[in-house]
Each structure stands twice: as structure tokens, then as C-alpha cells.
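Sequence only, no structure available. Ideas?
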Amino acid sequence: MGEEVQLSIIVPVYNMAADGKLDFCMRSLLDQELDAYEILAVDDKSTDNSLDILRQLEAENPGKLKVIASPENRRQGGAKNLGIEKAAGRFLGFVDSDDWIAPDMYAKLLQKARETDADIVACDYCLKSTRDFVKEKAEWNHTPEQTGLLTPEKRKLLFLSPGSMVIKIYRRELFLVPGLRFPENIFYEDNCLGAFPFVYAKRFELVPEVLYYYYQHEGSTVHQVSLDRCRDRMRAMRLYLEEGRKRGIYETCREEMDYKVFELGYKNTLFSYLQTEKHFSTAFLKELAAFLEEMVPEPEKNPYFQKLTDPEEKKLIALHRKNVRLLTAYYRLLHIYRKVRYGKG
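Reply:
I predicted one. C-alpha cells follow.
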């Protein structure tokens, strides 16, 4: 009988061959200071030579790297679901195929899980524009107040700020809960699912150290803004709210969940669209205002809105809800003023 697989690392891959991104990512996973783990690289019907690169690495690392070729493009959520179905590890980890990790990342997370009997363990990450292992400033994701045995109050804190899924390991049993899967054929799938494993976890712990390197480049999802992606943000948060109601967590985390719908589905969508789009679509901005009216009709009554939304954002949001044309006219004037005054829009 072979040694029990301690960890399955699931990597969705789509068109990441260029500039050595995929190779660098995969080699950081293959070089983990860890025994008894597997890497499940799921090629999501790439149109470049990503699958060829994965097959070559699989041949060089038999047993450690397993390549799954999806017969159709299902986007990251679908690719992750394929990986979950094939995973044998006691814990699961998720890595984006343009990022990379420290050699001891998973050893440290698993050690923390063993010491504390945690179901979920997270680390810190940093943003990178160069492919190296120099640790930059840690990005805030979790606080000690969120960790330990998960009381109702701690679950509220985690629904308010669930953090990134790629910096965590999850006990595999959490993904055996009926229906706990990523939405498919949609961007921002983590926005929808990321908080729900905490509903079923008993303990969450943190390794406060930068172990994950998040690559910033023009092709990454966060830098791509289109009407389709904006609508996917809204769709993801509709699914999120539906899931919360179905799983009975909305009753106890209503303010936190409503705020996340407002923040991720509406506010981030509005401001990323305004900041990147040159020709505003009145129809889309009306659609976004209608989304807010439907999902969180009185955001100003939410305590997190008051604490976490700055005055300028509140002003622009009020304009948007009142009159789309007023908003776009004011925003263009604001953009010109900032460019003249500060040299930036």
C-alpha cells in the first residue's frame, strides 16, 4: 500500500505558456519541500502550447504531476472542479498558473494544520512584477481575530473578509459537502465560493509569513475589464447570496454578506469600469444601478458601508444611483482635474 497523499495542489491552466509563466509556476510546485503530495494541473482547453508544456513536465515527474485535459473550456471554476473530483490528498490547495510559491509553503501550512487540528490554514502573499523569490511587502488578508475555533462571531469576520483561496489549504472533507463546488463558465468564481468552506470548518489558523507570490501583469484577471467580466462579477454575487440563503448562513451573517455583494458585485465593478473604460455605456451603468437596487437597496444602512466606504466613493455612488449622466459627467471632470493636479487620472 502506498503512502497516503497529504496534499493535492490543483492548478487551473489556460493559455499560460508565453514568457515562461506556466513553467515557472509549475517548477515552484514541483520543488516543494514535502513528501507524499500530488499536483493536478487541469488544462482548460488551452489554444496555445500550455498542454504540451504540462505533458513534458508530467513525463519528467511521473506520479507527482498529473495532467488533466478538459474536453471543453469551463473557465477556472470548471477546471478546479475537475481537479477536486480527482484529488486524493487529505488537504487541497489551489494555485493560479501565473503565480508561484515558496519552496516551504505547503510544508509550513500542513505543519500548522497538524499542530492545531485546523481544517483551513492560510499564509500571507505579496504582489510581484518580476519572477523571483524576493519577498515584498505582505498584503493584508487575515487577522489573528479570525483564527482559532470558529465561533459565530469569527465566521462573521471571515464572511466579511474571506481572503484569497490560493493562500490556503483546505481539509478535503470540506469539499465533500453536497454542492460545495465552484461556479463554472464564469470569472470571479472565488468571490462566489471563497467564504463557504468556513461554514463547515471547525478551526482556521494562520501562518503569518509571505509564502505565495501573486504575479501582476496585464493579462491577469484583475487587470482585464470588459462588460462581460463586469457582468460576471454581478452574476458571481447573485450566486453567492443564493448559496448563503440555501446553506442557512445568510440569517446569521446578513450584514456581512450584504456588504460583500455591495463591495464585490457593485462597488468594485463600478469603479474598475469607470477607471478603465474610455467610452461609458449608459445602458450598462443603468444595469449596474438596477443590480444594486435589487440586491442591496439601502446600502447606507449597512454598518460596514459607513465604516469601509470613503467619502469620495459615497459621493460617486450617490450620483450613480440618482442619475447616470450626472455621474459620467462628474467623473470625467474629476479625471481631468486629477490629471492636471497630480499627473494621473
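The domain at 7-222 is CATH 3.90.550.10 (Spore Coat Polysaccharide Biosynthesis Protein SpsA; Chain A).
Hope that gets you unstuck.
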